[in-house]
Specification:
mainly alpha; MetI-like fold; 78% helix; 0% strand
């Protein structure tokens, strides 16, 4: 009995110890920034954006560490993430040393982190416009591609006649990357925005179609036999059995389509659209403004992460019996 209590006590001490690791990693990054001088050739040495970000992150980590002493659930989660957050602080330290402190990496292509963070201050209004433009294109392409993909997938998965005519077309056109359709899209659509939406929708359509049809075809025949015995019509079997049973596959297709749609979005915004994150990164690359390029890439990474996280929250809410089957 005493050994069990001692083991439980040691476990609690271990969790408490791991909650300090994020603060330790961020403190190392902050001390490196403050105490080690920048290289004499470093541009914009007066910028303190990295220092400000590290102070804010360190303050938040200390607050979470303090709260974790009183909230067991927070302590467990924060301790689990401790090594990753602390490692991120060490990674920032290494990047800072290799760029601003020593110039071991060429300054033109690898600017200091302070210059990257400064972009969010100087270009904040323009970046917000680009984020809104990209979000609009992405949502419109996802909605159109999802609607068409679900309809096509239902036809292919449910009807042998429709499958006979449509499925060969899907097998031929579907695997073609969206970016290869750029010349044709520019001819068909008069406005670049319409062409961009088409490219995103095309990539989404293929993923949704394949997994929707697969989900419907995988529905157990015994379900239809029982419902037909009880007097269900063909449409009732489709809408009350086949489609609900295929929902996990449809959401999986939507997840895959969302990931590929970001690739299509970047390609679509480089063919005449005058706003958007993909266009912004390409424009800044041509201007050799690599701090802006990295700032745009960070926004895209965060944007993609939040979008997919929200998607999984909705999925877990609608498909409670499938919660945790696919983790994000």
């Amino acid at each position: 009995m005493s050994e069990g209590l001692q083991g439980e006590k040691n476990r609690k001490l271990q969790w408490n110890y791991r909650t300090v690791i994020p603060s330790a990693g961020l403190l190392i990054a902050l001390l490196t920034e403050v105490m080690i001088p920048n290289h004499k050739d470093t541009k914009y040495t007066d910028l303190t954006n990295l220092r400000t970000v590290l102070i804010a992150a360190l303050s938040i980590s200390l607050l979470l560490c303090l709260l974790s002493l009183f909230i067991p659930r927070l302590r467990k989660r924060y301790a689990y993430e401790g090594w990753f957050i602390g490692g991120s602080g060490i990674f920032v330290t290494l990047i800072n040393i290799l760029t601003a402190k020593t110039h071991l990496l060429p300054q033109l292509y690898f600017p200091s982190l302070s210059r990257v963070f400064n972009v969010y201050i100087e270009d904040r209004d323009f970046l917000l416009t680009c984020i809104l433009s990209s979000f609009t294109l992405l949502v419109e392409g996802l909605i159109i591609g999802t609607i068409v993909g679900v309809i096509t997938g239902i036809l292919v998965g449910w009807s042998k006649s429709w499958s006979y005519w449509i499925y060969p077309v899907i097998r031929i056109l579907g695997p073609i990357p969206s970016s290869t359709w750029i010349p044709l899209a520019l001819i068909i659509f008069s406005a670049p925005k319409g062409a961009a939406i088409f490219l995103i929708a095309f990539g989404v359509w293929f993923q949704i179609t394949i997994l929707t049809s697969s989900g419907i075809q995988a529905t157990k025949k015994s379900y239809f036999e029982v419902s037909s015995t009880l007097g269900a019509s063909s449409l009732q079997n489709l809408f009350h059995i086949a489609i609900p049973d295929a929902l996990p596959s449809i959401f999986l297709g939507f997840f895959n389509a969302t990931c590929s749609s970001f690739v299509a979005l970047m390609a679509a915004e480089m063919m005449g659209v005058k706003s958007g994150l993909g266009w912004y990164i390409n424009w800044q690359k041509e201007m050799i403004a690599y701090p802006n390029v990295y700032a745009g890439l960070i926004i895209i990474a965060g944007f993609c992460y939040l979008f997919i996280t929200l998607q999984f929250k909705v999925r877990d809410k609608l498909l409670k019996w499938q919660k945790g089957v696919i983790k994000w």
